[in-house]
Amino acid sequence: MPLSEFRPPSCRDKVGDKAAVWLPAAEVLLIVAWSSGFVGIRFAADYAPVLLVAFWRCVVVALLLMPFSLRAIRRSSPQSVAAHAGIGLLAMTGYLTGVSKGIEYGVPTGLAALIADLLPLGTALLNMLFLRRLPDGRVWLGLALGSLGVILATGGAISWGSAPLWGYLLPLAGMLSLALATLWQQRLPQAQAQAVSLPARLGIQSAISALAFAPLAGAESPLLPTMTTGLVIGVLWTALLATLAGYGLYWFCLRHTSALRVTSLLFLSPFVTFCWAWLMFDEPLSWPMLLGAATAGSGLWLLIRPPMRGRTERAEMNNGR
Questions:
Q1: Burial per residue of 282-291, b for 16 or more beta-carbon CB atoms within 10 angstroms, e otherwise
Q2: Is the dihedral of CA 264, 283, 276, 47 positive or negative?
Q3: Arithmetic mean of pLDDT, 74-103
Q4: What sign does the CA torsion over 29, 243, 131, 295 have?
Q5: Helix axes 23-44, 50-64, angle to 10 degrees
Q6: What is the largest CA-CA distance in the chain?
Q7: What pTM did the predictor assign?
């Protein structure tokens, strides 16, 4: 299956519009912003439980985008608002809860991060399951190289830990939750997708996720913690960079290209995260990390490069003889 088959027909021509001129820059910024979330969570975890930080990051974004959200709720149909709320529950609540709770129950952080970073593979498998179409050899090779690059880079941090067997399913469920939200968002009817602007969509998703995080975080600690400088910095970091910029750029890129391309960009997320950690926490970089980055980069190139026109045209000419 060619890469274009991973996007719905209504989206295949969107790369040529004016907004798509900014697509390469948006994709680079997406990798940087998405990677900042892991660093922000690590920083904030020293001051408050992870789910409490997730609750407050969603609250901050929901409040910032409330004017857009309220306007969209008044003007859009209940079906459109409900669809975007459901996508938010999967993309934010499901993803963050699965990964963080898996770590809490004993799954090593490196292994949980590795499972989360295999999002492109999970998206391709779910797409194959729902659409019953097999990717072509180029897509499988790109996914294999990308996954191998992630494993090479994070291999030194991987251990099995002492979690119960079902605990290892939590990061997997979180990753698949985001993959499902990605496919749902891209296959929304055009009327629903365009009825709600990007800021309004992100505000609705953050608000519904905050409501979902409230009982989960409240079961672990008070929802109004002691405010410290570290906690405030951690919440603002994850709210503004990881949520507002990260998820905002994720949905923007998804609007203008395919689900497989957008998720494949996140193959490079571990390596940018290592660079963040090197700058902020003085953690050393290693040759396996660089080798993994090169391997994942080659897989990403296979996944996002356009098919060779000459070869396709020659094949069509031969078939027409």
A1: eeeeeeebee
A2: positive
A3: 90
A4: positive
A5: 140
A6: 76
A7: 0.81
Note the pLDDT of residue 106: 75
* pLDDT, tens digit, 9 for 90 and up, residues 224-281: 888 889 889 989 999 999 899 999 999 999 988 888 888 888 888 777 777 766 776 6
In angstroms, what is the C-alpha Rg of the chain? 20
Q: Please determine, for residue 18, whether its predicted confidence score (pLDDT) is greater than 60.
A: no
- Cα gap 267→43, rounded to integer Å: 22
Q: What is the pLDDT of residue 58?
A: 96
Q: How many residues does the chain have?
A: 321
% helix / strand / coil in the chain, to the nearest 5?
A: 80, 0, 20
Helical ranges in 10-165 per DSSP H: 23-44, 50-64, 66-75, 78-88, 95-104, 109-117, 119-131, 137-154
Check residue 225 and report its DSSP letter: P
- SS3 state at 2: coil
Closest to 242 (Cα-Cα) out of 109, 56, 66: 56
CB 113 within 8 A of CB 98: no
Bigger pLDDT: 319 or 76? 76
Going by the DSSP 8-state scheme, the letter that residue 170 receives in this structure is: H
Q: Residue for token digits 């391997």?
A: 295
Tokens of 16: 């040529």
